[in-house]
Amino acid sequence: MRIKSALAAATIVALAAACGSGGGDGGSSSSSNEPVKINFLSLAWQKESVAANKQIVDEWNKANPNIQVTYVQGSWDNVNDQLVTQFAGGTAPDVIHNDSPALSGFATEGFLLDLSDKLPAELKNDIPQAAWDTVTFDGGKGAQGIYGVPFLQESQVIIANKKLLDAAGVRVPTADAPWTWDEFSEAAKKMTKGGTFGVAWPMKSPVNKTLNLALNFGGTFFQAADGKTTVKVGPEEREVLQRIHDQLYKDKSADPAALGQGTADPLPAFYKGKFALLPAGVFLRQQVAEQAPDGFEWVTLPGPKGTSAQQGAVSQTLSIAQDSKHADEAMKFISFFLNGPNQAKLAKGDWLLPTSQTAAADPAMTTEENGWDVATASAKNLVVAPFLKVNGFDEWKSKIATPVLQEFYANKITIDEAATRLVDEGNKVLERYQR
User: Fold this and answer.
1) Distance of CA 199 to CAs 188, 229, 254, 259, 384, Å?
2) Is 124 helix (H, G, I), strand (E, B) or coil?
3) H or E element, residue 250
4) Do residues 85 and 13 lie in contact, with contact meaning Cβ atoms separated by under 8 Å?
5) 197 has which bridge partners?
6) Distance CA 309, CA 301 (A)
7) For a tag on the chain, would you pick the N or C end, based on fewer CB atoms within 10 A?
8) What pLDDT, on the 0 to 100 scale, is given for residue 138?
């Protein structure tokens, strides 16, 4: 999806549109005895998640007869194109489910309401500042604003074959004492024997995983100076690149068959014991829990630690359309929808991490079953992904970084060649987005 180009095309439509529904001041225009009606666009797609979303909406509607919410099912596949058209025509939903990378462009165009002055203290204080940083952008007026409420995030963990892990006799990492990257590499080497590899790195889509893990060593891949953003691939960024490459070609502890696969594609081989460790997003635990054959024992381990355990994060979000006639009521609904108990339900349904500290303390989020304790603990290491604020990242990712990293991990180019191309070709892309 190309939000920026779609937004540019929509400007013409917006000029011709009757500018909307006349809201825009963030207030409410409810009248008489008719209930206020709010449309809520949800992108939930997993069965458990959809059920949780609908249950919370039903609970709201029963408790609030004067503010009725209509659940509207959307899709991650086309949501941003759909929203561009709706924003331009003044028909956008009042409450919008999306993710933080999409908010910047919409905020700059004035399509989303700045929530800074509308957030109830209880909601604001329950979510750590690091999560709020993922939804704080320059709204095109030279001032930073909050353009969504962050509620679900993802971290990288390691899903491990317990039998192979125990047999190797390596130290089992914990949330308080994760493996260092050196320990991780040594453990993978120990587990590589008899046709079994220590680890698998599915890198069909390598960019987000690489950039998020790069923060383990302070690698940001982008730097800003004098109002200009450029690509940076220095010693910090090279650490994770080189370590994964070494597992593949120096230690030969990484299964080469997994390299061109998507995140879940190696699971059948994992169940057969072809490799012991699978670094993946926390959401993948769901497929393992539901699909692993009887008798297969697995555990969730924290991601490795470099100079820190930090990882980059983006958030799923709820925003309010700038043109909503019922922004105050929409904010009341969002506050209910994202309270602690409800965030715990939503996180369970999506197998992701709640931003709410109340939700994170829920017993459902701290149980050892299916690795929820380790997954939830990993949230403390999440910081705003550096690329989240970079105009042009989407194009850099698809046209430059994805093919370059694929070639590097396939051992077709050196790390120096990869760095040069990421920077030189990447800066040409970013230059077009500089203000």
Assistant:
1) 6, 35, 5, 11, 27
2) helix
3) none
4) yes
5) 275
6) 13
7) C
8) 81
8 A C-beta contact, residue 260 and residue 203: yes
Q: Which residues pair with 299 in a beta bridge?
A: 160
- How far is CA 364 from each of CA 3, 33, 164, 375, rounded to the nearest angstrom? 36, 41, 28, 12
Tell me which residue of 205, 192, 207, 198 sits closest to 179, measured CA to CA. 198
Q: Which residues of the chain have pLDDT under 70?
A: 1-32, 140-142, 435
Residues 6+ apart with CB under 8 A from 185: 243, 246, 247, 251, 253
C-alpha atoms less than 13 angstroms from C-alpha of 10 in its C-beta half-sphere: 23
- Quickly list DSSP for 13-60: HHHHS--TTS--SS-B---TTSPEEEEEEE---SHHHHHHHHHHHHHH
Structure tokens at 155: 């971290």
In the structure, how many helices (H) and strands (E) does the chain have?
20, 16
Closest CA to 259 of 412, 63, 142: 412
Partners of 36 in the β-ladder: 67
Read off the amino acid at residue 82.
Answer: Q
- What values do phi and psi take at 205, rounded to 5? -120, 85
Residue-wise pLDDT tens digits, 130-173: 999 999 998 766 679 999 999 999 999 999 999 999 999 999 99
- At 296 the pLDDT is 97
**pTM of this structure:** 0.89
Classified as helix, coil or strand, 358 is helix
| Residue-level pLDDT at 226 | 86
The half-sphere exposure of 360 on its side-chain side, counting CA atoms within 13 A, is: 18
Is-contact 423 233, C-beta < 8 A?
Answer: yes
Residue 219 contacts residue 236 (beta carbons within 8 Å):
yes
Q: Which residues contact 224 (CB under 8 A, 6 or more apart)?
A: 230
250 within 8 A of 269, measured Cβ to Cβ: no
Q: Exposure of 110 by Cβ count < 10 A (0-12 exposed, 13-18 middle, 19+ buried)?
A: middle
Which value, to the nearest 10 degrees, does the dihedral of the CA atoms of residues 201, 207, 209, 211 take? 130
pLDDT at 45: 92
| Cβ-contact 255, 274 below 8 angstroms | yes
High-pLDDT (> 70) share of the chain, %: 92
What is the predicted pLDDT for the residue at 32? 60
Q: Whose CA is closest to 121, among 335, 333, 328, 329?
A: 335
